[in-house]
Write a structure and sequence with these properties.
globular; mainly alpha; homodimer; 5 helices; 2 strands
């Protein structure tokens, strides 16, 4: 169970969000590095977000969604959140 | 235009999310303090989230949504995000 920013993600919600991001990125044939650059997120941070290892912020979710051409709500729906 | 955690929220997305949270809280006749306590978010932080003054994290969005009895995706849909 990962402890993220002092809060325990005991239900694996971050992992589910990361899986949703990765699936849409791969559907666009976009590399993780390209997504990080489009979203203006540090490349190593992007990897951790996709693996559910970082408690991503709202504004980064919005930027990532824009970069993978969907709405933030789509990512949450994909992740059943 | 608020600068939040080093990123500019130039489209007012945080304000829209805050408005959505506040509307659902008020619909439940819940005080901001009670919501903060349920969601285990600091009370002053909760006020700043509702005003769009803090770049709220994913896990806090999930906790807030649970506390106001909706899905995180509902908040994003309410905010047209």
């Amino acid at each position: 169970m990962a402890r993220v920013s002092g809060k325990v993600d005991k239900n694996g919600y971050l992992v589910r969000l990361g899986v949703a991001i990765r699936a849409r990125r791969i559907a666009l044939a976009l590399s993780q590095e390209a997504l990080a650059d489009y979203a203006e997120v540090d490349r190593s941070h992007m990897g951790k977000i996709e693996r559910g290892e970082r408690n991503v912020t709202f504004l980064n979710i919005v930027r990532i969604a824009e970069a993978i051409q969907c709405k933030p709500s789509d990512l949450f729906i994909d992740a059943d959140l």
